[in-house]
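Write out this protein's structure.
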Amino acid sequence: PLDNTIDSWGMYNRECVSYTAYKVAASGRYMPYWGGRGNAKQWDDNARGSGIPVDTSPQPGDVGISNNGYYGHSFYVEQVSGDGSIYISDYNQQFDGRYREYWVSADTVRARGFVFIHF
């Protein structure tokens, strides 16, 4: 069930941040312990504070951040196409604890002001 376990990074299970922390760590990269340091919309600031680059240019393996809404949202960039659209995976995008994979157009990436953390 959603939010019934605290993961290795101090976040609740089946949430977008828990999933993206797992994906970074599973890829062999360092994932800082950001438990208790806010929601997805604080991750870009947490990354900058930790010296991790953040910008608006997506690359495969990045964690994307939407700062929209109360909590924001994090997602994992699986692929970037030549036209700038991105194929992403995430959890809980619709507050239902479910996993999803889907394409997001380059226009949507720009319009929503997504930023990308380069772990």
